[in-house]
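=== RUN LOG ===
request id: a7f3
mode: sequence -> structure
chains: 1
length: 189
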Amino acid sequence: VNLWAHYYFSARWKLSSAFAYYYNKDVPDIGQYSSPEYRITLQGIYYFHKMKYTLFTRMRTEFRFIRNAEEKFEDKYRYRQMIKYIKPLNSMVLRKGVFYLLSTEELLFQPNAKTKGVSFFDRNRFELGGGYLITDDIQLELSYVNEFIPRDDGNEMYNAVCVTMTINNLLPNIRKKLFTGQSKAEQED
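=== RESULT ===
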């Protein structure tokens, strides 16, 4: 569960913060113990708006509080740097009814890692996929994600299919519908 707050400082800069809770359940088959996590995130996104594509870079800092095997919460800090490319297919800009391609490359760093076998460079994530804007504020994405995790006792690699649904401007749209509905009702009276 993630709760985000965004502030558009300018057309090129978006500043965000989040509070999240991750429930990592006990799965003995893969060596995972129950380790819930609370996460506070601060990030800045810089957009390079072009007519035929959008390119942006995201700088994200995460303060993570994860329960360990002794059932005590450990604090961990992680920095993430990502670049994302979005190319509309049936339009020049992203809007309702547009299909698009996307690609991301993200590097994750974990300074002062407490976990054995974890270096400063935590992992690399690559994503390739596509999306569709159902409305101007609701989009659905399907992508392939490859995650490479270097470790002292052997590197790990994960491949996954990711489905993402994004809803933008939720509260302003609800407010707009409520107030528009009231004014029409008042006009009918």
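=== NOTES ===
The longest strand covers residues 73-88.
The two ends are 43 Å apart (CA to CA).
=== END ===
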